[in-house]
């Protein structure tokens, strides 16, 4: 009896390792695949199909991309970096200010304001009225602001921040108020420095959202100079020939025919490169954010 | 509290309230000003567009504008549910994809959280969690590229596998019937790591002494999982599921478009309400598209209200919002 129980416990443990390990691999494998195809020779890929190890390792695809569309990609990188930076900073200022205000218990109308925020989650006018207003009244068609403004305030992130701010003891604020500090000063000098983790977490969430956004570009942007990286990738995936319509190829890459399979994966790698690079450093903040969001106040 | 307030303003309820309003605004001016930028964004992008929903009841044309165009009542809605339109089809697609998304979104993350808890090796935990969480960081366009790598007819991984097993290959991108399934699995792949963290957060708060007691009583690991962990995860699961049910009429535009894009062969099989609105906006006009969007919002509002009420009942008065 005792022995069989031990055996079943071992079985559970082994199964746990197997299950978690396999699922982890399932999540990792597509990325390895993408990376290795982008480093393979187009000829081999067409012959043998995609594989998790590079076939005839070569950087030709990347050389081809940068020779043909290097400027285009740099421009898209520029757009994405600008949108991500400006959007995240703007969003953080807007979000943290209202989150701080709503965390103050003595603010009488805070429930009304919170309701105004909440209501936008549960009911919306829909895409078309939103689009008409944005284009006809705010002039967002083909404007870089169209990539920033519509997503500059997320109610979810606001409530996440408010949860953090609410955990700061009000007596700290009272002390500062007695010394004559205004709420703006308290916010800037006390609340924000005490919530560094929250600021980082929510800031990174906004940054990820802006980095990965392509839907605003799909809706608003026709001008190729304003394509963010993700949307550029989207156009490459739907029409791979777009990559060769850059400037006239020169030098080493001139003679190479369009490596259409490896190009798709190489542009994908270029798009997610910074995320892969930063991932080890930022992962824990996202985990923290999810955990705080999950444990409701 | 409330009745007292009204008594205070007795001489002239309106005047009293206004005075109180002004006094409160003055007292907390700084705090209210800090709310202004966010409220401006909400008004611009959420509240002003509500006026535009009027288009749903008109035959909109640009010359006459939103309020000058001819009023047609519910015609746009009627057309949506007539036989000649895709109305039922897209509603069905939306509900189908979301329903199975919810089911998989329950089973897989909970299994991950439960089994992750049984893993002892720290390095193994760290590595696998990093792997499992990573898909959350990818945009749907990138996921679309990965799916292409798997399902491409000539070079894709799946067809390679079929070939090496001596089976016949499938022209995935020409067979609409597979794509609902592919999309549901892709969504599971992208979100499981994320959702499992929510369950792990819940498990971190569990009472360890319960497990010790169970162990002393001779309960096996499997019994501890089935009779302790899983029941204790139920409240979290219920809340998350109700949240998803509240949003069951909303499709994920980015997911559908990122994976299937404009592929005319596949799009009909997986078009959800959101993508249909986008398509009809360019073909059948703004009024009709607005009507579909409004139908979706109203259904969404009803379901969220119901889900919230259920959550309150289940959660001792604490709703979803």
Q: Could you walk me through the main structural features you see in this protein, from its secondary elements to its overall organization?
A:
The complex is a heterodimer of chains A (297) and B (321). Chain A has 297 residues and is mainly alpha-helical. Chain A is globular. Chain A has helices at residues 2-38, 42-48, 60-103, 110-122, 127-137, 155-166, 170-178, 183-194, 196-212, 215-220, 229-238, 260-294. Chain A has a domain at 71-226 and 278-294: Orthogonal Bundle (MetI-like fold), CATH 1.10.3720.10. With 321 residues, chain B is mostly helical. Chain B has 2 domains: 2-47, no CATH class; 86-283, MetI-like fold (Orthogonal Bundle), CATH 1.10.3720. Chain B contains 17 helices and 2 strands. A two-stranded antiparallel ribbon of chain B has the order 1-2. At the A-B interface, helix 1, helix 2, helix 3, helix 4 and helix 5 of A face helix 3, helix 4, helix 7, helix 8 and helix 9 of B.
Q: Which features would summarize this protein structure in a list?
A:
heterodimer; A: 297 residues; mainly alpha; MetI-like fold; 12 helices; globular; B: 321 residues; 2 domains; 17 helices; 1% strand; flat; transmembrane helix (chain A); Putative aldouronate transport system permease protein (chain A); membrane (chain A)
CATH superfamily descriptor of the domain at 71-226 and 278-294 in chain A: MetI-like
CATH level 1 class label of the largest domain in chain B: Mainly Alpha
Q: Mind telling me the CATH superfamily name of the largest domain in chain B?
A: MetI-like
Mean pLDDT of chain A: 85
- What portion of residues of chain A is helical? over 70%
| Strand order in the largest sheet of chain B | 1-2
Which value, in Å, is the CA radius of gyration of chain B? Answer: 26 Å
Detail the poorly predicted runs of chain A: 245-254
Oligomer: heterodimer
- Examine the coordinates and then state which fold CATH places here, giving the name of the CATH topology of the domain at 71-226 and 278-294 in chain A: MetI-like fold
H/E series of chain A, N to C?
A: HHHHHHHHHHHH
Helix content of chain B: over 70%
Q: Provide the low-confidence segments of chain B as ranges.
A: 1-10
What gross morphology of chain A would you assign?
Answer: globular
CATH architecture designation of the domain at 71-226 and 278-294 in chain A: Orthogonal Bundle
Task: Please describe the biggest sheet of chain A, giving its number of strands, its sense, and whether it closes into a barrel.
Answer: none
Gyration radius of chain A, rounded: 25 Å
């Amino acid at each position: 009896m005792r022995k069989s129980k031990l055996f079943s416990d071992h079985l559970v443990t082994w199964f746990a390792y197997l299950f978690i390990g396999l699922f982890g691999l399932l999540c990792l494998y597509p990325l390895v695949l993408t990376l290795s195809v982008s480093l393979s020779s187009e000829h081999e890929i067409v012959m043998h199909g995609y594989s998790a190890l590079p076939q005839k390792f070569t950087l030709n695809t990347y050389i081809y991309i940068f020779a043909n569309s290097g400027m285009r990609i740099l421009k898209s990188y520029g757009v994405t970096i600008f949108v991500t930076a400006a959007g995240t900073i703007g969003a953080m200022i807007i979000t943290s200010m209202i989150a701080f205000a709503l965390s103050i218990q003595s603010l009488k109308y805070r429930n009304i304001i919170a309701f105004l925020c909440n209501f936008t989650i549960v009911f919306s006018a829909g895409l078309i009225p939103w689009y008409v207003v944005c284009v006809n009244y705010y002039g967002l068609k083909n404007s870089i602001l169209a990539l920033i403004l519509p997503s500059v305030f997320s109610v979810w992130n606001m409530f996440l921040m408010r949860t953090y701010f609410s955990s700061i003891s009000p007596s700290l604020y009272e002390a500062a108020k007695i010394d004559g500090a205004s709420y703006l000063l308290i916010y800037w000098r006390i609340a924000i420095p005490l919530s560094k983790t929250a600021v980082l977490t929510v800031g990174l969430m906004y940054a990820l959202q802006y980095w990965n956004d392509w839907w605003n570009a799909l809706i608003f942007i026709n001008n190729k100079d304003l394509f963010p990286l993700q949307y550029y990738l989207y156009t490459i995936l739907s029409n791979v020939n777009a990559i060769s319509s850059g400037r006239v190829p020169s030098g080493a890459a001139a003679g190479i025919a369009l490596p259409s399979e490896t190009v798709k994966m190489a542009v994908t790698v270029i798009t997610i490169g910074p995320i892969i690079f930063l991932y080890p450093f930022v992962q824990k903040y996202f985990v923290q954010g999810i955990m705080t969001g999950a444990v409701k106040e | 509290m409330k009745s007292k307030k009204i008594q205070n303003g007795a001489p002239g309820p309106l005047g009293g309230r206004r005075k109180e309003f002004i006094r409160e605004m003055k007292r907390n001016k700084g705090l209210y000003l800090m709310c202004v930028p966010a409220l401006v964004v909400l008004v611009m992008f959420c509240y002003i567009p509500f006026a535009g929903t009027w288009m749903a009841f008109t035959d909109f044309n640009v010359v006459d504008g939103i309020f000058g165009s001819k009023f047609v009542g519910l015609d746009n809605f009627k057309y949506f549910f007539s036989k000649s339109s895709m109305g039922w089809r897209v509603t069905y697609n939306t509900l189908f994809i979301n329903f199975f998304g919810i089911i998989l979104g329950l089973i897989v993350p909970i299994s991950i959280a439960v089994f992750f808890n049984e893993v002892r090796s720290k390095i193994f935990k760290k590595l696998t969690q990093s792997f499992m969480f990573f898909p959350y960081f990818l945009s749907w366009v990138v996921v679309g590229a990965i799916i292409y790598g798997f399902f491409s007819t000539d070079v894709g991984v799946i067809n390679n596998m079929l070939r090496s097993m001596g089976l016949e290959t499938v022209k995935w991108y020409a067979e609409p019937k597979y794509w609902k399934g592919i999309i549901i699995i892709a969504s599971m792949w992208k979100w499981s790591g994320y959702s499992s963290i929510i369950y792990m957060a819940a498990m971190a708060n569990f009472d360890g002494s319960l497990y010790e007691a169970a162990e002393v009583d001779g309960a096996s690991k499997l019994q501890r999982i089935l009779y302790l962990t899983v029941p204790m995860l139920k409240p979290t699961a219920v809340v998350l599921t109700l949240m998803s049910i509240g949003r069951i009429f909303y499709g994920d535009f980015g997911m559908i478009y990122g994976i299937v894009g404009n592929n005319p062969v596949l799009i009909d099989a997986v078009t959800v309400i959101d993508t249909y609105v986008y398509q009809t906006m360019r073909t059948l006009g703004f009024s009709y598209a607005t009507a579909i969007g409004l139908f979706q919002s109203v259904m969404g509002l009803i379901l969220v209200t119901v889900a919230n009420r259920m959550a309150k009942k289940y959660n001792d008065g604490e709703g979803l919002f």
